[in-house]
């Protein structure tokens, strides 16, 4: 009888242990699945938030018409007038110029494909050919805030690559002063070399006076 009772107790104890084990197995599985599900949901939410925060890129279709017009104007100023970057921007935004908004003008400058070294050289050639200017005079005009507004590097590139006969330029200036202002040779020489005048070298000025008729 005692033996049966003891066996019965052992049987009950076995059942209890089995229930606990099964509960642990199934309970752990649910927790693992819940954790995995939560992680996936978190990843989806993070990805969605990241995609939402991305700024839409400006395509050709959604660029404002004003911006496109500013770019066309900038291209025209660079191609036909060989203007500097700063000069073009100022012309685009000027109240006496194109009157574009700063945003439209900046868009144009960012998108404009221009060789400002080449533009500076073309301007330098024009100043030499049409105005018979000196080397120093051309350089100063290229970088001047009241002139062309090229960078010093762009202006130096232009001067280094400009093919000009500055003695001939000095002579043409001297002839102009003599003919239009009836100046004396000495006064012309002073004007040619003056820092506030033509900025020719002494040698160039002497050549001009020696060949002045």
Jot down its keywords.
mainly alpha, Arc Repressor Mutant, subunit A, 3 domains, 10 helices, disordered N terminus, Ltp-like_HTH
CATH class division of the largest domain: Mainly Alpha
User: How many individual helices?
Assistant: 10
Shape: elongated
Oligomer: single chain
Determine the N-to-C terminus distance.
152 Å
**Helix content range of the residues, please?**
over 70%
| Percentage of residues in DSSP E strands | under 5%
The tally of structural domains comes to 3
CATH topology of the largest domain: Arc Repressor Mutant, subunit A
**On the 0-100 scale, what is the average pLDDT?**
84
Can you summarize the main beta sheet?
A: none
- Uncertain ranges: 1-10, 12-23
How many E strands?
0
Q: Give me the CATH superfamily of the largest domain.
A: Winged helix-like DNA-binding domain superfamily/Winged helix DNA-binding domain
């Amino acid at each position: 009888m005692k033996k049966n009772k003891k066996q019965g107790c052992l049987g009950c104890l076995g059942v209890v242990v089995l229930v606990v084990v099964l509960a642990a197995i199934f309970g752990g599985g649910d927790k693992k699945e819940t954790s995995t599900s939560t992680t996936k949901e978190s990843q989806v939410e993070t990805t969605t938030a990241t995609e939402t925060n991305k700024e839409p890129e400006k395509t050709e279709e959604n660029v404002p018409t004003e911006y496109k017009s500013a770019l066309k104007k900038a291209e025209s100023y660079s191609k036909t007038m060989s203007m500097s970057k700063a000069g073009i921007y100022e012309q685009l935004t000027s109240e006496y110029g194109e009157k574009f908004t700063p945003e439209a003008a900046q868009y144009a400058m960012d998108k404009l494909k221009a060789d400002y070294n080449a533009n500076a050289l073309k301007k330098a050639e024009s100043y030499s050919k049409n105005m018979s200017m000196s080397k120093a005079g051309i350089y100063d005009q290229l970088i001047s805030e009241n002139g062309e507004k090229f960078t010093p590097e762009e202006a130096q590139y232009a001067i280094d690559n400009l093919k000009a006969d500055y003695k001939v330029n000095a002579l043409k200036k001297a002839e102009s002063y003599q003919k239009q202002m009836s100046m004396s040779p000495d006064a012309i020489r002073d004007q040619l070399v003056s820092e506030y005048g033509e900025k020719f070298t002494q040698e160039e000025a002497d050549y001009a006076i020696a060949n002045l008729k």
